Amino acid sequence: MAKRTYFFTGFPGFLATRIIDRLISEHPDADFELLVHPSAMETATSRVKRLTSGGRDTGRIRLFEGDITKAGLALAPSVSDELYETVTHVFHLAAVYDLAVPEALAQSVNVTGTRNVNAWVLHCKKIRRYVYFSTAYVSGDRKGPILETELACGQGFKNHYERTKHDAEVLVQYVRDRVPTTIIRPGIVLGDSRTGETEKFDGPYFMMRFLDRFSRVPVPYIGRSRATINLVPADFITEAVCHLAHHPASADKVYHLADPSPYTAREAYRLIAEELSGKKPMFTVPRSSVYMMLSVPQIRRWVQVERETLAYFHLEAEFDCSQATADLEPAGIRCPDFGEYIPKAVEFYKENRHDPRKLIPVN
Questions:
Q1: Per-residue confidence band for 78, with pLDDT thresholds at 50, 70 and 90
Q2: Which of 16, 156, 197, 345 is 20 to 30 A from residue 50's alpha carbon, by CA?
Q3: Where in the numbering of this chain does the Thioester reductase (TE) domain appear (predicted)?
């Protein structure tokens, strides 16, 4: 088979780094061309050294300063012209994932950035696959079953993150007839199921931070919803994406990389509380009361929880994974059971909860 050349946005982010690490192991002769925002170049340089340490057999790995919010990704025309001739796979992971992101920033990075990446991809002469990272939560406030084949269904959105990721995926859907495209919609991503490792304590880790603040008093449940919460470990996402990026059947498909048998949010919360504090929640506080409490900036900063997080513990959406299951199960790739790996996630959190590099500021 002809040589593979991978082009990435979103490096040195956590998932991009893990995917590149696995691809190096699976395709050691491949080249990697990594678009890096100038603000992240120092970290990116350090991570490349780690990826190639120990005399590891790799192809060429190059870093290019760029910016997806700029036309042409802010690459020199001569650089783009060279890459257009060699790139075979594009992975677009760069985005703002903060649930409390301001609208202008979300629009610039998630929508304008994706429009610019789409335009760049269309110039690649040897492109075999365009892998775009969306999110399962482009479904917004929809309830009930959500199919992988559905997108724009008149839904509203809980925050600017969801709305702009939806709008960005719409743009990617428009290029599917011109470029072999695979769209990935992950659930809420936790750390590695085997080690617990993660880069930032955001998303469900906000609940661990919340429970930390009340560790010396009885632990409450928040609300009485029986909704499920779809949590998936990073190693499952990595393994699945690396497989689907090369699977002939996955071109022009959308995949919910979600847990096909998710726990209820209440049960997941209980397991986290017991692992973290050794205490089972004993009573219930109305969700509206907690939301009002987190509406006060001083309280929000003290408990270190974004109020937008609460909505995802009460979301009545069911993500159908039929396409993902059909194309992953023959390769033996399955989402691990949350109850089996949450002890590792909590253990890693407890060991690193005071590391300022892992703490997401709450405003």
A1: very high
A2: 345
A3: 9-240
